[in-house]
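Morning run. Coffee first, then this:
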Amino acid sequence: MSDSGNQSCLTGAEDTVSVLVCFFHAWEEWAGLGQEDYLSVLEYLLWVFTPGHCLHCALPHRHPSLPFYTRKNQLREAYCNNLWDGARKTLATLWDGHGAIWHGYEIHGMEKIPDEGPALIVYYHGAIPIDYYYFLANVIIQKGRTCHSVADHFLFKIPGFKLLLEVFSVIHGPQEECVRALRNGHLLGISPGGVREALFSDETYPLLWGKRRGFAQVAIDSQVPVIPMFTQNVREGFRSLGTLRFYRWVYERFRLPIAPVYGGFPVKFRTFLGDPIPYDPNINAAELAEKVQQAVQSLIDQHQQIPGSILRALLERFRTKHKGH
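And here it is:
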C-alpha cells in the first residue's frame, strides 16, 4: 500500500475499528504478508494455542494449499508422538514467526549445518542473543534437530527457567559435558565472548574472547568441525550500557551482569554461517581458537557496516540486497 493509499484509508475511517483496519493493512505490507498469508498465520496460531492437540490426530487435514499447512501437520504429529517434542517445536515455530515479522529474519548458509552428526557452532554474542534463538528455531524446523547450547551459570539460577533449559538442552558448560554432547552426535552452540561480549561490546562489534580456548579444546577432543556464525545488525536490535565504567567495574568485581539493556528495535537481522573449519589433528587449541576467531571476524567484516546504525538497520528492512553479496 502506498503512502497516498494509507492516507486515503485513514481519511475515510469513521470509527476506531476502521482506523485499526487501516493500520493493519499498513503493517501487513511492511511485514511482507499477503491477506491469505495472514489468515493462515491466524488459523495456525489459533491451532497452536488450542488445548488437546492430540485429539485432532485423527481429523482430516484441511486447507493443504495454505503456507502453514505443512508446519501445522508437523506440530500435530509432534504432539501426538511426544509432549516435550511438541512443546519444543511449538516454541520454535513461535520464535520463527516472531523473527520473520519483527526482524524480517533471514539465515544464510543453513546447508552448512549437517543433517546428522556433530558440529560446534561458534557465534558472536549480542546484548541479547535473540538472533541465536531464531537460529535454534530454524535448526529445529528445517533440520529436525535440537542444537545443544552453552549458557552462563546465572541463567540456571533464575526461578522457573530450569525446565525450559532442560527442554532445549542448555548446559552450563563444563568441557567434559560439551565433549559428551558432541560425541553423542549432537550439535552444540557456544559463544566464547559470553556475558562479557554481550554487555561490553558495542556498535563497532569487537570480539571480546580474551584468551579463551576451552571451546577449541572441546572441538579437538570431540574431533568435530567448527562452524562460525554472525548476525548482521544484532547490536542494533538491542544495545547495552555496559560500556559505562561503573557497570564494567561491578561485573569484573562481583560477576553481576547488571548493565541495563535497551532496544527491541525491529531492525533487519541476517544470520550468516561460515564455511566449516574441519578437525585437524595437527593444530592445538590456541591455534584453532585463533582460526575460529578470524573466521567470525571475517563474517563481521564482510556483512556488517561499522559502526552499526539503528536507523540504517531499520531502513534495511526495505532492501533486498545486503553487504557482501
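Residues 1 and 29 are 6 Å apart (CA to CA). Good start to the day.
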